[in-house]
Amino acid sequence: MNLGLRYDYYQPYVEIRDHQANFVPSAIGLGTGAGVFLLPESTKNIPLASTFYSIAQQNNIAIQYTNNRSLTSSSKTDFSPRIGVAFRATDKLVVRAGFGMFYGGLESNGASLGQQYPFESTSSYLAPSCLPGSPCQTDGITLPTGFANLGGPTPQSPVSLPSLYGLPLHYRDSYSEQWNLMTQYALTNNLGLTIGYVGSVGRHLQAFTFPNSPAALAFPGTNVQPFSAFPLLGFAGLDTFEGISSYNSLQTSLQKRLASGMTFLGTYTYAHSLDTGDSYLGGTAYRNTVLIPLRKEYANSDFDTRHRVTFNGSYEFPAGRGHRYLNEGGLSDGVLGGWSAALTFAAQTGNPISIVPNITTAAGGTAFAFKVGDPFKAGGQPNATNSGITCPAKVRTLTHWFNP
User: Fold this and answer.
1) CA pseudo-torsion sign 203, 208, 213, 216
2) CA–CA separation, 351 vs 176, rounded Å?
3) What is the domain extent for residue 54?
């Protein structure tokens, strides 16, 4: 029996000159959002534009200063136990089991708390009349003058619809729990069979969400700013730690150690993986989390592989020096000795696919499909609103795997 205990502390990152800010929403509603815009105490001397104060006040965002330079805090109780057990039941049968917790630190999504106002300004403006031959709205930004014509005390002053990014004030580090129970049986002195169960869960996984997404459905082309929680903000990104995952599998292997010139390893795994997002930087597209909570995304992982078979082996031909046949060396050894054959094979079932309609949402994102019928029932007539599709007479073929 092996017992262990590990402790981790992941310090939130700090900008060396305290040039970072944290936007933390506290309420999300249709035009009724509220939150806090936190800045380090040492940056009080950096002026904020009057337009930013006005935007914050009208969107129920309190501007506050704090002595906590990181503007957030992580867990200080990341204790992770480990246990491993090996038991020889008989001379030919061994049982093994293990359990462990594993913590992960804060992963950057490519942005940071330093990449926003007033240390970096990202703004958007709507120009619905910007058509060929007509003037386009620029809010004073032109190639000859750059940012010089923007209002406010500094060149970083926001124009309109500023973009903000945030982390929770107190977040729990992501972690996984992993366990296994395996049995290994010696069929012969050189051949062993292993069968067992391997599982894991992930908790508090990072997920990048957009709290200023529209809290309503609208037709494409609609200005959705009035239907968001903070109508005077543009993009708003928030790291959350609400993601979950699970993995369960039956794992088997048959292994022959090298004897009489032959060795091989064959495996079969039956597994099922589910999560609310395959990876933080994997490009998983969440639906609007303002309308559909993240927990509703719990489904088969993008990389879920239900069945997998592998084989790897080699065989040395028993001829030539040191082998059973033609062991005398010379010409016969040079021609027939030293030969071997190897085989590598792998086969697995496919990964899940996502059905994405060829339409966009009002906010410019990609729409998601909802199943309204059996996609593996052949025939039928296309819906009048989508008459251009074909209803195949046969499904599960390379041409028509499902019926759209």
Assistant:
1) negative
2) 23
3) 2-125+141-306+349-370
